């Protein structure tokens, strides 16, 4: 199975970030009646994961930051103001940020490694790496 990364335009990457945060917000808003103050940032982590998979690092970081701001404004008491909340909210923000940054870092590193692998494969197939080609012909 061959995996290739097709580049997405910057505009589309940031559109995915905004769209995924909007869907996360609406999902959390609908679930707010049942969840109240528990698990406030889970939907925003999923939105960040979607953005990270399809977008670049800039769009991913924007989704992470925007998710934190929306979460803080709408779901942290006192609601409808930016505040640090209580110690549970502060711990939640720390966990959200750490998981989000780790997820972005891992996915973007994987994308970079896959891109490097594809470029090396293309160079080998096109004969652009004579030292590898000569080693391969000597062993065959």
Walkthrough of the structure:
With 140 residues, the chain is mainly alpha-helical. Helices cover 76% and strands 0% of the residues. It has one domain (10-139). The chain is elongated, with a radius of gyration of 21 Å. It starts with 9 loop residues before the first helix and ends with a helix.
- Return the average pLDDT rounded to an integer: 86
What would the principal axes of the Cα set say about the shape? elongated
Contiguous runs where pLDDT drops below 50 for at least 5 residues? none
Number of domains: 1
Per DSSP, the total helix count is 5
SS content category: mainly alpha
- The H-and-E topology, N to C, reads as HHHHH
Largest sheet: none
First-residue to last-residue Cα separation: 25 Å
Q: Could you estimate the helical fraction of the residues in percent?
A: over 70%
Query: Could you tell me the strand content as a percent range?
Result: under 5%
